[in-house]
Amino acid sequence: MFTSKVPVESVEKIQDNIFILKAYSPEIAKTIKPGQFCNIKVSETDYPLLRRPFSISDVEGDYISFMFNKHGEGTRILSEKKKGDIIDILAPLGNGFTYNDDFEIAIMIGGGLGAAPFPFLIKEIKNKKIVTLIGGRNKKDVTDWKMKNVYFSTDDGSIGFHGNVVELLKSKMVEFAGSQVKIFSCGPTPMLKALQKFTIDNNIKCEISTECAMACGFGICQGCPIDSREQGKDKYYLVCKDGPVFDAEAIVL
Amino acid sequence: MSVDLSVNIGSLKLKNPVMLASGTVGYGNEISNFTDLSKIGAIVTKSVSLKPRKGNPPQRIVETPSGMLNAIGLANVGLEDFIKSKIPFLKEVDSTLICNIAASSIEEYVECTKTLDSEETVKAFEINVSCPNVREGGLIFGNDIKSVGKITEQVRAVTNKPVIIKLSPNVSTISDFAKVVKDEGGDAVSAINTLVGTAFDIYKRTPKIKNITGGLSGPAIKPVALAKVLEISRKVDIPIIGIGGIMNWKDAVEFMIVGSTAFQIGTVNFINPNAGLEIIEGLESYCKEMKISKISELTASYQL
Description:
Shape of chain A: globular
Oligomer: heterodimer
Shape of chain B: globular
Largest sheet of chain A: 7 strands, antiparallel
Strand content of chain A: 35-45%
Largest sheet of chain B: 8 strands, parallel, barrel
Strand content of chain B: 15-25%
Number of strands of chain B: 16
Low-confidence stretches of chain A: none
Order of helices and strands of chain B: EEEEEEHEHEHHEHEEEEEHEHEHH
Order of helices and strands of chain A: EEHEEEEHEEHEEEHEHEEEEE
Distance between the termini of chain A: 27 Å
């Protein structure tokens, strides 16, 4: 974990409201793992005051990329960065996905920008079949940027499967019968809850990357608690430090 | 020209006036990845209570203009685990350790202080009578001048180490509280704790933090904090540890001028975990530029 001031290489709008910010940081590129995140100070002033957490989306050589939606002041400022602008990044944070265990098919399940950590994860998973399911309200919400074998679902049916992404997963399970599957997921809580129930009921390995408002990103502000499923545990996990990735069986969403 | 950065808070000598505020540095281990704690004047631990506290459910934090609201709810490992698993790390850090104590009853404050008094690493106590986010023990005490007096008196009776009372700004006349602390034998006051605030989602019409209200911190509260420190400084002869929205050395100098002997940095640690060291450097060059040989000369040097 360290803080560093790094130059922006580019900000690309890949569709409607989805941006990719690429920055030059050999130090972060060398150390960060899929599922970990960076806490970024978007301005040099006291407004916005806090850093903003972003999943690492891709690493190419000495460059790191982040995928984000423009939805508030912080992301608006980020979306307007130019090549050579400096951003202050605290990284690498959190635990990241576990993808070297025993399974044959990796299924990515993302809701909207929950897809952000997948490009890097897909790149790092070697010698396994990969299937990516991305859901959103409509086709503007979903992207297949640098992902493999992508199937979309949309609530309005404007692209792909008409329905939510967990229903899409259920409809595809028959294709994976007989194979050992591991699910990697990230997205809005209602989606994750439905997925958690499905994977626990069907005994499918599943890792969930969670989100929570936080200030520091490394365990001192105690701002991002998440409840454990363990009976009688009188302590919260912290999303920033114990997560953001948890086994679906470990947490209460 | 060398500058003497050391300060004395009563009998407590610090190598410099920079203190890391309770609840913003945990128990030191995480932030030590980013900064050299041995250069810091003092570290104030996350509040410790007799028994572990789980704290409030999420959301605990929301950002507001130039500030943040938090309602952590004094989540902490409890006294036993603090002594067993946190003190050993802190023992190795060459800074002054101050233990912040939170409690739901006067007896609990006394018991915690008594137990920790025998820990050599703990050099002073900061008594939190002003957490806005727990039902008992927080503002109920902090708003009641008699309780603050009683807590000071009874904690004082069980330790010879310096006793600092952390005051709430959510009162009409903070200097009255500082006076009672002095009268009951307290060594210093920390001012201020967070201000009670809230924020609502205008589409759902629900509070943005689960606890409904939280404590406001960050640069947004600095002018309020400065006014409270000045008020105490003008009315009561007691060392003041200034707190409230310090982001850089200039803010720190301002706090010393209005009456602080030392100061604590809090919210800034979340954004820049090396802020303490940067502030020390800034203070040193300011003193050189202003031909100040002892930083303690700044305390209450206001010209009104």
